[in-house]
Amino acid sequence: MNKPRRLTGLALKQLAAMVAVTLPVFAVTTGAAAAQQEPAAAAKVLDCTTDTDGYWGHAHCTNNTGVVTAFRVTVVCGGWPDATGEWKTLNAGKADTSSARCLGGSGVGSVNWEEG
Q1: Residue 111 — φ and ψ, nearest 5°?
Q2: For residue 74, which of 44, 38, 50 has the smallest C-alpha distance?
Q3: Would 100 disulfide with which of 4, 49, 75, 86, CB 3.0-4.6 Å?
C-alpha cells in the first residue's frame, strides 16, 4: 500500500520560493499584453449628456470647439446585442442628438457616446 508523501520543511521552502519568483512574471506579462491590446482612447471634445427611457438611449451633444466633429450614441443592452446610433456631424457651435434602441432583452444597461 502506498503511503502519502509529506512535504518536508525544505521542500515547502523551495516550493514557496519558486511560486514567489514565478507569479510576478505572470502578472507583468499579462499586464503588458493587455496594455498592448488596448488602444489609447481619444480625448472627447464634445459637451454631451445621455439619457434613457428604458429601451431607447440618447446622446445630446454640443460642439463648443472650432473643429467639425462627428459622434454617435452607444447603448449597452441587457441580454441582447448592443446598439449604436446614427453618426451625426456637428459644425462649430451646433448641437444634435443620436439615438439607438434595444430591440429586446432587459433594456438599456448604459448609454455613452463615441466621437470620430
Answers
A1: -130, 135
A2: 50
A3: 75
Provide the 10 A C-beta neighbour count for residue 6. 7
Answer for the pair 45, 83: CB distance below 8 angstroms, yes or no: no
- Determine how many CB atoms are found less than 10 A away from the CB of residue 75: 27
pLDDT at res. 2: 66
**pTM greater than 0.70:** no
How far apart are the C-alpha atoms of 48 and 71, rounded to whole Å?
10
Give the count of beta carbons closer than 10 Å to the beta carbon of residue 46: 19
Q: State the cell numbers at 58.
A: 440618447
Owner of C-alpha cell 511560486: 19
| pLDDT tens digits along 6-45 | 656 656 566 566 656 555 544 444 444 444 554 555 678 9
Count CB neighbours of 73 within 10 A. Answer: 27
Q: What Cα–Cα distance (Å) separates residue 22 from each residue in 27, 38, 47?
A: 9, 25, 47
